[in-house]
Every structure is written in structure tokens, then in C-alpha cells.
Amino acid sequence: MDTDAAPPPQHSPRMRRGGRSSREQDASSSSSSQPGPSGGPASQRHKQQQPPPPQHDFPLRLLVPTQFVGAIIGKEGLTIKNVTKQTQSKVDIHRKENAGAAEKPITIHSTPEGCSAACRMILDIMQKEANDTKITEEIPLKILAHNSLVGRLIGKEGRNLKKIEEETGTKITISSLQDLTIYNPERTITVKGSLEACCKAEVEIMRKLREAYENDIAAINQQTNLIPGLNLNALGIFSTGLPMMPHAAGPRGAPPVPAAGYSPFLSPSSHLSGLYGVPPASAISHQHTSSAPEQEVVYLFIPTQAVGAIIGKKGQHIKQLARFAGASIKIAPAESPDVTQRMVIITGPPEAQFKAQGRIFGKLKEENFFTAKEEVKLETHIKVPSSAAGRVIGKGGKTVNELQNLTSAEVIVPRDQTPDENDEVFVKISGHFFASQTAQRKIREIIQQVKQQEQKHQQGGPVPRHSK
Hints:
The chain is α+β, with helices and mostly antiparallel strands. 37% of the residues lie in helices and 16% in strands. The chain has helices at residues 22-28, 42-47, 69-73, 78-87, 112-132, 147-154, 159-168, 195-226, 307-311, 316-325, 350-366, 386-393, 398-407, 433-457; strands at residues 60-65, 90-93, 103-109, 141-146, 171-174, 186-192, 296-303, 328-331, 341-348, 378-385, 410-412, 424-431. It has a six-stranded antiparallel beta sheet with strand order 2-3-1-4-6-5. A six-stranded antiparallel beta sheet has the order 8-9-7-10-12-11. Helix 7 runs antiparallel to helix 8 (195-226), helix 10 runs antiparallel to helix 11 (350-366) and helix 13 (398-407) runs antiparallel to helix 14 (433-457). It is elongated, with a radius of gyration of 25 Å. The N and C termini lie far apart (68 Å). The model is unreliable at 1-54, 231-250 and 253-290 (pLDDT under 50).
């Protein structure tokens, strides 16, 4: 029996490879009463037009030794049926993939509690099988996670990971960035300790990963609202083609599932699905509007040692990047020989900014300018009219604090700045890509509001000054 062919009852690319026995279908669909992309008959979902649950389906992905797969499935699939029934989950064992591999991936769809309960049962089954077959070596818990989420699990200087280790009494290691490929953007999180300790660690690790994932989903939704006409479906953010977000969870090493097919992370109709595949740069559609979008200037700071990688051989990479994004990209001269950062000046409309900055963030990660334990966080400066600076700060810092809470970026409006010849001052934004983008768009919105108010008051009374 093989439970790899065990998707929900709609649009799975894996179903095309061959039919399933009724036994296989039973073993994998015991969570069909659950709402969301991974449960419930299609007809039921269409009838009940209920609002989607606040939490997206975020599966738990495990890596288990191949020798235990038979025991996890059980005779005629009874063991795995029992797991799915007791934990109200759907479990896919990708048994046929990567023939000869020492380990096989398992994907568990359920609530966070259901995933944890299924994980515990699978660890129990493996431990019992190890005892029965006189295997003495420790069986670690191995969790697979998309690389884009791992930085936030690790935390600054490894703090999050250390905290989980201390609180659960486990030892946690994460596979190297060197193991990533276009077809396998997942890292392996290995947890060693007692079965009880490993289960506690799984809960905490998945809580952090889910939080990072939910934040990214919120940021992307925010982005589509803030940049009208931005075609997120077709943006190839990373130059290697590595998707920025988790792709459809399939077998490791297999090409990503097409965006139109089933994705365990979201419904197939979602406008986000394009980010989960690997769209070619040529797929970008250009919006034709009656008026040209406003040109924006952004000052992005990168590590000095990364300048060569951004420019490329004979300037090829920076030229290619400018063409792809539809932006002007220039690297400002170093102010002194020992500077640690260089300023990249990007000029272009909102969509061009999103594409150019996204690729630069991706390039820095890809070229290992940030370690495996660091997330790519860069400082960005944008200029705002001095008359709008007070509005960005808000009364008693209220607006800037709300901005930081909403976007997860650090936003600073340095006080006592002398406005430049255009009567503008700098706002500093620090954070990972989506956080920085959302903060930039929000600040541009505030600037637009101030400009509109000023135009209204030009012929009328004075423009109201907002307290800082």
C-alpha cells in the first residue's frame, strides 16, 4: 500500500499518475469533515459559503527513516487509519518517491493540535518498531520547513532556538543552506531528546513556523491591496527561481506542483498561488494604465562585500535586474574605504520597486552574505516631505508605533533633520522583505494624503500642522 496518492478530493496533480484503491482512499480521507483546503468534499465547500478560518492550513512535514514506513502504515493500512481517525488529520506518506532514499517525507494536515497528536503517535510507532527490531540508536524527530521561514524560527543570534532547547530539554540542529536546491527549498530541523521532550519541541517549533507563515500571508495580502494592479502571481522574486514562500508540499526533490494544482497551504483559487511555484520572469504582465505610475526613489543599504554580486561580471547582473524590474538601479560611490554598507539607489514605480528590492534581498541570501542563522534584514531610506514627517510619526509617536506593529519593520523618523533642497527628510525602515515593503507602501499612503490635503488648502486657509 502506498499513501503518497492521498490528496484531498479535488484537483490533485498526483491523482493523474494512477488510480487509488478504495483502501488507500479510506486511509487518507478520515479528516474529510474538516474545513479548508485539505478537508471536506468539494460539494460541501461550495454549498456552505462560510468565511474562511483565520488560520491557513499549514501542514506538519516530517522526515522518517524508510525502514519504519511499513510499521507506520501497518497491515492493510490499519495503523495509519488509526492515526488519522484518532487525531482528525490527513496523513500523506510519500513512500514511492526518491527510490532507495534512507528517509521519506510525511505530510500531516490538521489543526495544530491534530498535527502534534499525529506526530506523537508516529514517534511512538517508530520507537516501538525500533524496540521490537532491536535497533538501539536514537530516533530523532525531523521536521521539514521552507527556508523562507527558518530564519524567524532561529531568531536573532539563535535566541528562539536556544529558548526552545532550554524549555524542552532537547538539542536542535538545522541543515545547511548548501543542501537547498530549486526543487527542494526545505531545511531539515533535527530534534534530539526523549520522546516527550521531542513532542514538546515540535509544538514550539511549529508555533514559530506558523507565526512566520501567517505574517507573510498577511504581508502579501497587504501588498496586493497597497499596489493596485501588482501581479503577484507572476513575480519571480529570486533570480535562482527559488520561491519566496512555501511551495506545494510534495515529495522532496520533485519539481514543484504547478500553481493551478493542489497546494496544502491555500485554496487553488487563491491569488497567492503563483508565489508558490516558480514562474519565469517572462510571465510578468505589464499593466497598461492611462497615466504613468509615479516614480519613487528608494535608498537600500547592502553589505559592502555584496556589491560585486549585485553588479555581476561586467555589470551583467545589475543590467539584467534593472531590465527585469523596469527600474533604474545605481550603486552610490563609497564615502570612505572602510564603510561596511553601500547605498543602492532604486528609481521606479511601485511594482518595479517590489521586484528590484525582492531580487536584491534574494540575491544576498542566495550568495550567503547572511549566515544560515540570519534572516535577510536590510535598511531602506525613503524621502518624505518635511510637512508629512509629523504625520508619519503621529501624536506621541502613535502612527509610527502602529506602523511597526502592523508591518514588523522598524521605522525611524530621525528628529532634528534639516530638510534638503526639495524640503524633504529621510524615514529609515529596517526589516525583512515583506515587512519593509509594507512599511514603504503605508508611508507612501500617508504622503499622498498629506499632498491631497495641501492641494485642498492651497487656495483656502492654512494647512493644519500635525503635532509630533
